[in-house]
């Protein structure tokens, strides 16, 4: 089925890149040739290769927090928008703090 990851602990075959939807040229690619997305990562507990969206390691059963990988993927794909949003948030926070403390600093 297109877009799905095949089953198996050692399998890293993707029909489409999860980040940019590009079709990998080679099924054994470790990174997407279009956006650089890493198709396999190492388990933090046993260092075995696992797929990025597995919630548990198939080798040792260690639980993974997938949210960090999703944030990393979002920032990788939308880096310019994320930088602009961060600049707006920090600028607004600085202005609010300056406004709140303006009388206390005099």
UniProtKB/TrEMBL annotation:
Chain ranges of the DZANK-type domain: 17-61
InterPro entries: DZR (IPR025874)
Pfam families per record: DZR
Chain segments annotated as transmembrane: 82-101
Keywords (A to Z) from UniProt: Membrane, Transmembrane, Transmembrane helix
Domain of life per record: Eukaryota
Protein name as it appears in the record: DZANK-type domain-containing protein
Lineage: Eukaryota, Metazoa, Ecdysozoa, Nematoda, Chromadorea
